[in-house]
Amino acid sequence: MTTTALLPDPASPLARESAALAFADVLDGRADDESIARFLTALAERGETSIEIAEAARALRQRLIPIDAPAGAIDVCGTGGDGHHTLNVSTAVALVVAACGVPVAKHGNRAASSKAGAADTLEALGLDMAVAGATAERSLADLGICFLFAANHHPAMARITPIRRRIGRRTIFNLMGPLANPAHVARQLIGIARPDYATLYAEALNQLGTEAALVVSGEEGLDELSGAGASIVVPVGRVALPGRVTPEDAGLARHPIDSIRGGDARRNAQALHALLKGEVGAYRDAVLLNAAAALVLAGRAATLAEAVPIAAEALDNGAAHRLLTAWIAYS
To answer: Which NCBIfam families match (predicted)?
Structure first.
């Protein structure tokens, strides 16, 4: 089968094999740009299956540049593309959770659909991206945190990126970032901007053999647990949370999404720095909510309500701020 046609019926016994071959063709350059564009567009219009998501991720994993990670390392990452342009929640969560003693291999990129991605904000805070990339494995071992800049670890995507830009719409590769962490973490908190895809995404994680994950989506289409209302939660493997949670479940107040509206990298970096220095409000509560889910995932607490004080202590005693300072000095 070529990438110029739709994959077979998902019920076909050949669906997995066909998907694997198709994504190998895409990533290894055996299909021309126009064929790849038609293939990705056709998948998006039909709707991707969990098999196709899993096989795309498996193909990308087989071609990435890996690093070693300590036992128990996790990732906290969103798919992006939710259109809400919020402050960098998962980046702040990574610092808070790592300050609680859980190793965090943060996978991320520069902004694609927002004004400031994780890489942009960390750079504005003073992290040298080139050095942080070169020392990622060591900083994860020594400090308990690293930033895995996607462009450094996924050479197979170099050719696909301009094709995706030309298509100008979401494709299956918008879902791939959290599924292809170069540290091969076995536990992940994944935010997805499409609530209707949460279960499908969780099924793909199961097929990939994930040890434990929480796939979360704010019901307003937020790619993280929402501080404004209810969120969908789909557990994978050895972790449990209710299928629908609210800030009140964690003992936190609700705040409108506008209250954590972000800006450019400088603005987001200023907000993150203020958070680490003790500023309270909507941003802190959003970070605490998502950090609590990560701590449950890591086995540090059984419920969100139990985990929130642990995360809050890492902010209040300055541990998260000291970690950022040490990380910047390390880079």
So the answer is: trpD
